Amino acid sequence: MGSSLRIVSCFISSIRFVYVKMVQINVWNISGHFRLLLQNRTAKKLAVICMLLTGIYYTFFYKHSTHHDLPYQDLSEKYNCSSIAHMDKIGIKRNKSVCVKFAGGLGNQMFAFCFGYTIARKKNMHLVLTREHILTQYFKLVPYHWKDYDLNAGICGCFPLIKDKGFDCGYDKKLEHLPSDQDLSFLGFFQSWRYWKNYENELRQILQFQDNILHEAKSQFHNILSKHKNYQGLTTIGVHIRRFERYDTDEFGKNNAPKEYIIHAMDYFRNLYKKCLFLIFSIKMKWTKKNIPQTDDIFLVEGNSAPVDLAMLTLTNHTIMTVGTFGWMAGWMTQGKTVYYKHPATPGSEFSKLYSNYSDHFYPGWIPME
Known about the structure:
The protein has helices spanning 2-24, 32-37, 41-60, 81-89, 106-122, 134-138, 200-206, 211-226, 259-272, 285-291, 306-314, 325-334, 358-361, and strands at 97-100, 126-127, 161-163, 184-187, 235-241, 276-282, 298-301, 318-321, 338-341, 367-369. By secondary structure, the chain is an alpha/beta fold. It has a 6-stranded parallel beta sheet with strand order 7-6-5-8-9-10, with helices on both faces. A 4-stranded parallel beta sheet has the order 2-1-4-3, covered by helices on one side. The protein is elongated, with a radius of gyration of 26 Å. The relative contact order is 0.10. Belongs to the glycosyltransferase 11 family. It is an enzyme of class 2 (transferase).
């Protein structure tokens, strides 16, 4: 019975949607003869049939189209932006929503999620997250995408956009004081732990890997340990090596961590613990094999997907990151000692201007090295 009522309600909404669209494009005045044509009884019947067929299409077919691959700025053209405004105008109560433009790799997307979740959490709003989003595929996140209103997440494209002020890797305290009585949509990277410092334990509990990913990570991790005799008392250190193209510094000012830094960081842990095992993850394994001495306490992990690599990194005791957000998230989720390269940007470069301050980006207590 409930499903039938929902279909009828959706069908009525679709008819209204079609009618509103016809009004919006002023279809009645397309031709001076069109109004006269509708005075004909047969023409009226045909018009009603066309509207009914269009309503059926929008009810049973159109709403399943996600458009999640469309450019963000074009989404508003694909959705009826007036629909949500109409619901607000007639007094339909709802929690306001937070939309974040997810972009980049897994680390970037996790930063965006943590930022958006915290804004929504503090203001009793909803973070819009679709079932198709990669984070819902990798983590046990509950999607929310306007399903209660028969609208798609693309409605986010209708909201006024709030952009970061250039501090992609920094913190803007003004974003802490936004209204909670209107929908918010964000475009940027917002890569500072300060935004969600009061919710980080909650976020770690929410960002639980899907069972198949965690199972694969644990299976590989234990297989690696089993290859080492007397692995009891072994301290494991996850090493993530990120390389920007082929150059140590690019024109934008992004710096690669040199091999001397990685060796220095590993020696730090060797001096700290008697028995170490370094699990190295990188998509630039050719560079790693050429530049990092392959000693007995090193194991190169290859051939996995990004979420499995990240899950394996979180199973280690400590973290060595080079540059980038993937290694950052590994260190934050692991909660051991984290060593990071202290010169991620060339001073005075365009990239350096994306940091409000290094302390706003790198987590408190992490160890800078060079």
